[in-house]
Specification:
CATH class of the domain at 56-194: Mainly Alpha
Oligomer: single chain
Structural class: mainly alpha
Shape: elongated
Strand content: under 5%
CATH architecture of the domain at 56-194: Orthogonal Bundle
CATH topology of the domain at 56-194: Tetracycline Repressor, domain 2
Largest sheet: none
């Protein structure tokens, strides 16, 4: 008789994380949503939220770690479903979602990092390893060049989303990501994509 209780608890916890993620993204830099709003949107009482996450910091950490898992696991899942270059471009979209979520809880995150409640160095290592996995597969397949490192990719992504914040111009960010991805391509793959784009333009003309 106890198993359904555990299942319900797991569902409630996941629902709270998913709703908190959505509300953090929607909030952007405008201020973090209240815990009562998160509980209400998840369809549970505030007491249920506090049973799972006794503090705001506990909830923020759970959301943060869930997003990191999406990025690290996502590299493997995307490679299983797409050629490496496509997997990398789709992973960049996951990265943008992670940044958007971080922006909505940035004040709490900063306080947690300053108080050593959350370590950013380990997260960086995990994300660089995920990028390395896709880069290695792309080099082996011949559609990503050997000239870029995982640090280059991470720096490029941060630069793009600094110039084109996710909340203000997603179209510009997507266009810049496409350009960046073309720069990561192996020379022959990049030339092939360039010819395909020129043919498409001529066909439309």
């Amino acid at each position: 008789m106890s198993q359904p209780v555990r299942s319900d608890a797991a569902r409630n916890r996941q629902a709270l994380i998913e709703v908190a993620t959505r509300l953090f993204v929607a909030a952007g830099a405008g201020g973090e949503p209240s815990l009562r709003l998160i509980a209400r949107e998840a369809g549970v009482g505030i007491g249920t939220l506090f049973r799972h996450f006794p503090t705001r910091e506990a909830l923020v950490e759970a959301v943060y770690q869930d997003q990191v898992r999406r990025l690290t696991d996502g590299a493997e899942h995307l490679l299983a479903a797409h050629p490496p270059a496509q997997a990398m471009r789709r992973w960049m979209d996951l990265f943008s979602e992670w940044l958007a979520t971080k922006n909505g809880m940035i004040d709490t995150l900063r306080a947690m990092i300053n108080n050593k409640q959350l370590g950013s160095a380990h997260t960086r290592t995990e994300l660089l390893a995920a990028i390395d996995k896709i880069l290695a597969a792309g080099r082996a397949a011949g559609d990503i060049g050997a000239h870029a490192t995982s640090e280059d990719v991470a720096a490029g992504l941060i630069g793009i989303f600094t110039v084109a914040p996710i909340t203000s111009s997603s179209e510009q960010a997507a266009r810049l990501l496409d350009i960046f991805m073309n720069g990561l391509s192996a020379p022959t793959a990049a030339r092939s994509r360039g010819r395909g784009a020129r043919h498409a333009v001529r066909d439309r003309g």
